[in-house]
Amino acid sequence: xxxxxxxxxxxxxxxxxxxxxxxxxxxxxxxxxxxxxxxxxxxxxxxxxxxxxxxxxxxxxxxxxxxxxxxxxxxxxxxxxxxxxxxxxxxxxxxxxxxxxxxxxxxxxxxxxxxxxxxxxxxxxxxxxxxxxxxxxxxxxxxxxxxxxxxxxxxxxxxxxxxxxxxxxxxxxxxxxxxxxxxxxxxxxxxxxxxxxxxxxxxxxxxxxxxxxxxxxxxxxxxxxxxxxxxxxxxxxxxxxxxxxxxxxxxxxxxxxxxxxxxxxxxxxxxxxxxxxxxxxxxxxxxxxxxxxxxxxxxxxxxxxxxxxxxxxxxxxxxxxxxxxxxxxxxxxxxxxxxxxxxxxxxxxxxxxxxxxxxxxxxxxxxxxxxxxxxxxxxxxxxxxxxxxxxxxxxxxxxx
Length: 400
Ligand SMILES: Cc1cc2nc3c(=O)[nH]c(=O)nc-3n(C[C@H](O)[C@H](O)[C@H](O)COP(=O)(O)OP(=O)(O)OC[C@H]3O[C@@H](n4cnc5c(N)ncnc54)[C@H](O)[C@@H]3O)c2cc1C
Hints:
It is a single chain. By secondary structure, the protein is of the alpha/beta class. The chain is built from nine helices and 17 strands. Strands 1, 2, 8, 9, 10, 11 and 17 form a seven-stranded mixed beta sheet that branches. Helix 1 (23-34) links the parallel strand 1 (14-19) and strand 2. The longest helix has 18 residues, at 102-119. The structure holds flavin-adenine dinucleotide. This is Lycopene beta-cyclase.
């Protein structure tokens, strides 16, 4: 046991309550369950619904083995970015673009929780399925209210959705998409290459691209993605995917095995994180990168930071990234350029990948770049729109 970790029970129902058993809730739960230093802590997870199936597919860049390596379904080292004028070949080395299906993730995490229970039967690791109605930060603890119970705990970690106040001057776009996992009758896909962004699709007066993830020669997830303020009617995504398949694989016979759709907020709004005993995680904890929507790997980093803080007996409400403010600023500029249409999105992403070594761009996107790398990437982008964005955001700041 490390110093500072409280071991005595002091009237809590559970030491930790995790509200929401999606990506962030389970990523944290498995780490807490496996921690030796916290092996006396009782954990309660609460969600309003049981999630077992594939409601989403997570992809992310990672070098080497990661925490969820054993459930990685597919990985790519090669990719393409296409615009009307350019075809850019990418080699991600030393990174891989890894794919995890949420159904595998939910099952794997619950299996780890079950193993932890079996290893230490006196410890409580429970999952309840009921809606959380209220979470309160009290002087000495947190209090979670559900439709049936009130639970007192040392800390609550919540990934429940939080609203962005309408009166705040923030940049906001939806990244919205529909994807089809198709199985073709003939072998048409190259599973060693994925299409990161193919902009040769209807742009919807915004930024739109097709994202193609082939998992074998017959099967691929084909996803039409748009960055814009307004969502589209479902039939528009469907028509775009159908046209894309027809154009790129003429007369292909295929079955649609699964459909996924979703929307991810792209914003520079900073969710307040001021409570002592209630800590927000996941998208609600600001782990979605404003300019790209990528969240999975930031959730993993945040979960590790929380785990280490708890193991050291420190407050888990810590800012974990010394350079986070820089990345927030870059995200803000990029969001401003996109949302104000200061430069076409397809050209912007093509410039980013064409004018810089791919591994450097990935480090920048996953927020592991050096300051020097940031500067060289920013200098490679078109000056006029970014200077205008810098000036506009400076003015917005002065008016806040
Ligand atoms: C379809 C889709 C695909 C995505 N793909 C990627 C990707 O490829 N790469 C990437 O990095 N990011 C991706 N994202 C973004 C992000 O990784 C996911 O949204 C991720 O699931 C966010 O994790 P989370 O824990 O914050 O939220 P969630 O996983 O949505 O979990 C929140 C949980 O809270 C529960 N809940 C909500 N309200 C209540 C309540 N009142 N009481 C109890 N429980 C409640 C919900 O049931 C849910 O289980 C994707 C998002 C979507 C929607």
